[in-house]
């Protein structure tokens, strides 16, 4: 039995790693070199196409995140949303069949006792018909029922400070306590109803058709909630009075809780108040809402499909043309010792490098596009930050770029493998 000194030789392993490292470095230098010289060329055009499609993916996905979160009713100081497990934080579209939380007044007392919770309120959102004393026809308004506190807070941009503290009409579940008849209108709602402070309002719950109830406009304040479809007129009520009007008093129902806390450890205790509900942090709402809303998910999925198809087809085709044009260079590499496997690896590394460079430029271009889009939308409609740029977005875009590179690689590899031999090329 003979011993081959090459077997398990660390120097051979090191030289192999160095060889592959050098090959990858060669691929990167070739791509970068073509990007900075001899412009325009196919490499620069390919990087540009990948960058543009990735940038569009970033902008559209950022817009999807914005669409998924902007219609949530929230206060500026809210740290957690407590929502039904089968429910949604989307509230501008009325859904009588959506899951709701029950026995919310009792749970509100429990939440107030949770260590670290500074304030909380259940929120009921219903679409109702309202008519001002100076308006000719009733109009649909998004009614929001809350339990006001002594702390000055805002719900959907409307301050609850003008409402009397507490929820006196609830009266320990009898719903026969003092009826305040108070309602605070957003500027948009006041315009739709042709109402101002101290004006009378007639309200009729859309879902139950109960007899109308008279209210008084306590105040008009706040900034209107905007969606991509336009301005949302909002009216804020005491929770029990809106429950009684819409039929949600049967079961003491609400759609979600808004909880403010300065203690991150309070989340588990909040969850214990409603074991069957979900506690959603402010920072986690965008991702959760994106997958709970069909439209933003469909938009982002369409953008992903377009980016993958366009980038892959263009990258595969142009890299194949590049290899065909560089047959003499590949023949020279073969003549100096680059075997078929190494030449194929060089093609794969070059294709992936083009995809990654295009992805990097695409992330930068997409981020700039989101800034420009938000400024244009703000100037035209007053909507602030319609598109979002969370930290996960550039990571997602780069993953897509790498996937494009891998999917596009087989075709240029096939072209390189079928290229003419060194003898035929150099004759």
For the largest beta sheet, what order do the strands appear in spatially?
A: 2-3-11-6-8-7
Radius of gyration: 31 Å
Shape, principal axes of CA atoms: elongated
Q: What's the total count of β strands?
A: 13
Proportion in β-strands:
15-25%
Would you give an account of this structure?
This protein is an alpha+beta fold. It has 2 domains: 18-67 and 296-426, no CATH class; 86-275, no CATH class. Helices cover 49% and strands 17% of the residues. It has 13 helices and 13 strands. It has helices at 10-36, 42-69, 104-112, 187-193, 239-246, 266-273, 285-292, 294-325, 327-335, 340-381, 392-408, 410-417, 422-426, and strands at 80-84, 117-132, 139-146, 154-155, 158-159, 182-185, 200-205, 213-220, 225-227, 230-232, 234-238, 256-261, 277-281. The strands form 3 sheets. Strands 2-3-11-6-8-7 form a 6-stranded mixed beta barrel. Strands 4-5 form a two-stranded antiparallel ribbon. Strand 2 (117-132) and strand 3 form a beta hairpin. The longest helix is centred in the C-terminal third of the chain and has 42 residues, at 340-381. The chain starts with 9 loop residues before the first helix and ends with a helix. Residues 4-11, 87-97, 283-292 and 420-427 have low confidence and may be disordered.
Which descriptors apply to this entry?
alpha+beta; 2 domains; six-stranded mixed beta barrel; 13 strands
Topology:
Blueprint: H1 10-36, H2 42-69, E1 80-84, H3 104-112, E2 117-132, E3 139-146, E4 154-155, E5 158-159, E6 182-185, H4 187-193, E7 200-205, E8 213-220, E9 225-227, E10 230-232, E11 234-238, H5 239-246, E12 256-261, H6 266-273, E13 277-281, H7 285-292, H8 294-325, H9 327-335, H10 340-381, H11 392-408, H12 410-417, H13 422-426
Parallel strand pairs: 3-11, 6-8
Antiparallel strand pairs: 1-12, 1-13, 2-3, 2-7, 2-12, 4-5, 6-11, 7-8, 9-10
Helix pairs in contact: 1-10, 2-7, 2-8, 2-10, 2-11, 8-10, 8-11, 8-12, 10-11, 10-12
